[in-house]
Design goal:
The complex is a heterodimer of chains A (about 120) and B (about 400). Chain A is mainly alpha-helical and about 120 residues long. Chain A has a domain of about 70 residues. Chain A contains four helices and no strands. Chain B has about 400 residues and is of the alpha+beta class. Chain B folds into two domains: about 170 residues, Cytochrome c oxidase, subunit III, four-helix bundle (Four Helix Bundle (Hemerythrin (Met), subunit A)), CATH 1.20.120.80; about 140 residues, no CATH class. In chain B, strands 1, 2, 3, 4, 5, 6 and 7 form a seven-stranded antiparallel β-sheet that branches. In chain B, a hairpin with a 5-residue loop joins strand 2 and strand 3. The radius of gyration of chain B is 27 Å and the shape is elongated. The relative contact order of chain B is 0.17. The chains are: A mainly alpha (about 120), B alpha+beta (about 400).
Chain lengths: ~120, ~400
């Protein structure tokens, strides 16, 4: 809650400026991603994914840090530990699902990548 | 009884109760959306070639809604800052602006973006010949593989070439159904997509030949009455359709009743108005190989400019007909799940923000300004999370 120690003057001047900067960053990031896609800046799809997700992460970081005050609240263990646990748990679950797809084609093994309908039971005659 | 720590931080958590609560709630929300995001990724990497139609998204609408949501995220912080500065009038102003932005987001999504999809149809064909004929008509009279290929590449994974892996008959022709023709060759107009009668038109057309019962030679099985038979349908001993007291077809227990527009109405053919990408290809072709087709009198419905050609497709030529509804494909099912879940959060946020503008909230502010300021901070944290989700949804669903 360190923002409570800020004076009204801080909110009137510096914090409002910060809001403007973040707002501009978000708008520029959105337009940049959109324009890059529209003009086909990245011929390789993988590069387009990396670019778009990097911009999205930067935008999200700005929102979390400034708009959600985490820049000042990160030292509060209730928040940081809660989200550290959430992150670990989420990554673990994603690894169990998405990660298993990536790991499906082992050397010497068979490709067991799940496909729509491929493993559906044969229709009854 | 007064609950402590609703305005001052607790010693153990370092937060006032409401703020500790919202962060724990947001952690659960991260898990919820994380789950559906990973489901999306899993479904996408496992999707068959030519089934992930994300190229159909309207990127301009998606970008517009992103900018609106970003603006609302900034304005709700400004509302909170005004309360910190004891400026209640400023707070009300920014809170109303936030609500207007949030409402605009929902209006664009629920009154334009989704309805436009519910009345936009994909037609797949029973044979390559039927597909060639219909696509040729859509392009002004002559089938042009280069043009069709460009349209195809535009609607599926931009980084992969799936053209050769999917048969032409399974490559859809998309557009709006403007009329149908009955067995007496009478033409019936279907109302405009965005007119007042829209809801009677949305979801109305559905047909999938895979639900038909086939003979061993692959032909469609009909009963003694000449009706085509559907999987899961109840038959009488003489193979006639079993019907209930209202005359509706009866399905076996556990079977999903199948809606077939052709069966329900007496329809022999549909009249399709191809979507804009087909018109664009017509225009491109007007100086090239298709020029002669226009000169040969394929004038369409716009008075002879060679665009907006109608395409008549016989029911026997159609293997699947579906609007861009959730049942259309796995892509649209996940699209509506993700954006619908997000839109419900937006709606919830609007209700909370409206509550904070009611007289009862004004009385809370007058009794304890700090408590009210904390409430707005909590509502703001939720709203920023809603914005965060969209920051990732926009590129994933619309661009990549």
């Amino acid at each position: 809650m360190s923002e409570d120690h800020h004076s009204p003057e801080y909110y009137r001047t510096r914090f409002k400026k910060l809001i403007t900067y973040v707002g501009v960053l978000l708008v520029v990031g959105t337009i940049g991603t959109f324009a890059a896609d529209l003009n086909g800046v990245f011929p390789k799809h993988a590069h387009a994914i990396i670019f778009a997700m990097t911009v999205a992460v930067i935008k999200a970081t700005a929102v979390v840090a400034i708009f959600m005050h985490l820049w000042w609240d990160a030292s509060v263990k209730t928040i940081s530990i809660t989200f550290a646990c959430t992150f670990v748990f989420l990554v673990g679950l994603m690894w169990l699902t998405v990660g298993s797809e990536v790991d499906s084609n082992k050397p010497g093994g068979t490709d067991n990548t799940w496909k729509h309908g491929a493993h559906a039971p044969a229709p009854k005659k | 009884m007064i609950i402590p720590h609703f305005e001052k931080p607790r010693e153990d958590t370092g937060l006032y109760n409401g703020k500790a609560g919202i962060w724990i709630f947001l952690a659960s929300e991260v898990m919820l959306f994380g789950g559906v995001f990973s489901a999306y990724v899993l479904l996408r990497v496992g999707a068959d070639d030519g089934t992930w139609s994300m190229g159909l998204m309207n990127k301009w609408v998606g970008a517009f809604n992103t900018l609106i949501l970003i603006a609302s995220s900034a304005t709700i912080v400004l509302a909170w800052v005004c309360l910190k500065l004891k400026d209640i009038a400023g707070y009300r102003k920014w809170q109303w602006i936030t609500i207007v932005f949030a409402t605009m987001f929902l209006v664009v999504k629920w009154s334009y973006e989704w309805p436009a999809k519910f009345t936009h149809y994909d037609v797949k064909f029973t044979s390559d010949a039927a597909a060639k004929r219909a696509m040729g008509d859509a392009l002004g009279g002559t089938f042009d593989e280069t043009a069709v290929k460009q349209i195809w590449q535009g609607r599926f994974d931009p980084g992969t070439n799936t053209w050769d892996r999917v048969e032409l008959k399974d490559k859809p022709l998309d557009g709006h159904i403007v009329a149908y023709i009955d067995s007496e060759d009478k033409r019936h107009k279907v109302d405009a997509t965005m007119g007042f009668s829209f809801w009677s038109h949305a979801f109305a057309w559905r047909f999938d030949r895979k639900n038909l019962v086939k003979n061993p030679d692959g032909s469609v099985k009909t009963n003694t009455e000449g009706n085509v038979l559907y999987k899961g349908i109840e038959l009488n001993a003489d193979e006639s359709l079993k019907r209930d007291e209202n005359g509706n077809v009866v399905y076996q227990e556990g079977a999903i009743p199948y809606h077939d527009t052709f069966r329900d109405r007496d329809i022999q053919a549909i009249v399709l108005h191809p979507a804009g990408n087909w018109h664009t290809k017509q225009k491109e072709a007007s100086s090239g190989t298709l020029k002669f087709a226009e000169e040969k009198g394929h004038t369409g419905t716009d008075g002879g400019h060679g665009h907006h050609h109608e395409v008549i497709i016989q029911r026997q030529e159609i293997s699947r007909l579906s609007s861009y509804e959730p049942a259309h494909s796995t892509f649209f099912a996940t699209y509506y799940t993700l954006t619908g879940l997000h839109a419900l959060h937006v709606l919830g946020g609007i209700l909370v923000m409206l509550y904070h503008l009611l007289p009862i909230s004004r009385r809370v502010y007058e009794a304890n300004p700090e408590q009210f300021t904390n409430r707005i901070e909590i509502a703001g944290l939720f709203w920023h999370f809603v914005d965060l989700v969209w920051i990732f949804l926009f590129p994933i669903l619309y661009l990549l």
